[in-house]
What we know:
Oligomer: single chain
Shape: globular
Number of strands: 8
Number of domains: 1
Radius of gyration: 14 Å
Number of helices: 5
Distance between the termini: 26 Å
Bound molecules: iron/sulfur cluster
Largest sheet: 4 strands, parallel
Amino acid sequence: xxxxxxxxxxxxxxxxxxxxxxxxxxxxxxxxxxxxxxxxxxxxxxxxxxxxxxxxxxxxxxxxxxxxxxxxxxxxxxxxxxxxxxxxxxxxxxxxxxxxxxxxxxxxxxxxxxxxxxxxxxxxxxxxxxxxxxxxxxxxxxxxxxxxx
Length: 149
Ligand code: SF4
């Protein structure tokens, strides 16, 4: 059976920065019939829950991996290292599970695919990938944003 990597918050784990989850019937329908590996890169990278919101500053997740952008909390604290460590652990989890696909939480600075917040903490979106989505894509895992959120 095909195994897919998913954002843990989409499966009901309360690991979001605000201590909530994002489970939805649409997401469960999207993964029905597939083995699922649930993973939260930010928790795996050592961040606590709840935590301050963070956004990508100076570029997207690919730029973070290339060392030309950062991940910063709304307090100004730089959490780039934790985000990169979490992305590496997510890639390890995908490899362990034999996942060639991932269905991840939209807009997140870790899990977002295609669109992320712009670093202004004003709710503005720009094209780009989160750090984990970028690392997975670079290593042959096809990442799609989850429906229903
Ligand atoms: Fe969900 Fe991903 Fe954020 Fe963890 S890092 S709370 S899995 S969106």
